[in-house]
Design brief:
Helix content is 40%, strand content 15%. It is of the alpha/beta class. The protein is globular.
Amino acid sequence: MRFSSRTPVDFDPNDVSAAADAARDAGTELIDLTITNPTIVGLPDQSARIAHALASAAGAPYEPDPRGLRVAREAVAAHHAARGLAIDPDDVLITCSSSESYSYLFKLLCDAGDEVMIPSPSYPLFAHLAALEAVTTAPYGDPRRVRTSDRTRAVIAVSPNNPTGEVLDAGAVDVLDQICAQAGCALVGDEVFADYAAPHMASVLGARHALAFSLGGLSKACGLPQLKLGWIVMAGPRALVEAARPRLELIADTYLSVASPVQHALPALMQIGKDIRASIRARIAQNRAALAPILPSDGGWTAIVSVSDEDSAVAQLLADGVIVQPGWFYDLPGDHLVLSLLTPPDDVARALPALARVR
């Protein structure tokens, strides 16, 4: 049987995951410092409010709109307005996740074999998303020195970066805007962690020369990954936006993947998300203080710790019952450990002696 080359050949877990699974199978109690799921880390319970919002919208009629329902797009626009970004609801397209947003954009911008540029270091999801669309990836480091090729169709900028927390300032956005305009490609801003960023972060929605797309979603903005709703916001020269819009709507119309109730409930969910964000911010600050010294960061949910040998540190910590991620998961140069700042503070406190022994 022949399978598509877009799927992997090897499905074996990496050595770190395999060792953690073996420890669990042996009955070892592990302190997991890699959890990034906000629904399972002991944040204040908002389930009753969430259930009420969804129940109130459960009887809404099915109104297929490839852009997403107007009420949902207006809620996204209001969320951006609270961050000082004025956007038109007509420039918003609702998806079921950021991963789906990427799949739509790769379909919109790329033919098979075309290239998207991805930041390095960064989260290792992009290669899989691109491969599933028969698209290649090319890494770049300094966003002010991106070098495109004749196959480049998009430059992806993650701000705040996962895991470094680095953000794009206005100068970096302007440089990327110019680079993409000159190359005739799009600027895609993964801004899912924008609500957890330093004030000097600038959005790609400020692009004036290149076609730009900003991605966000309930998962990070409101700590509600279980509700599966994301968004794409279009920006840049109006002629380019108007040319992209019907094509993007056609792609979305082919799937119509977002459920009506969560779209109708979005205004209420955004209000609930304000309280969840406050809890997440408090958790991040508490854990960041407990884990100090760690590498500086301008945003996001992760902490990076420098060590002399990351592989031996990961192994030693696992032997002590603590799970962390090595820096090579994210192509981080040097030797580092990557920890989630969403971890329950009691777990962080229990892990501190083991962490001290490898630092």
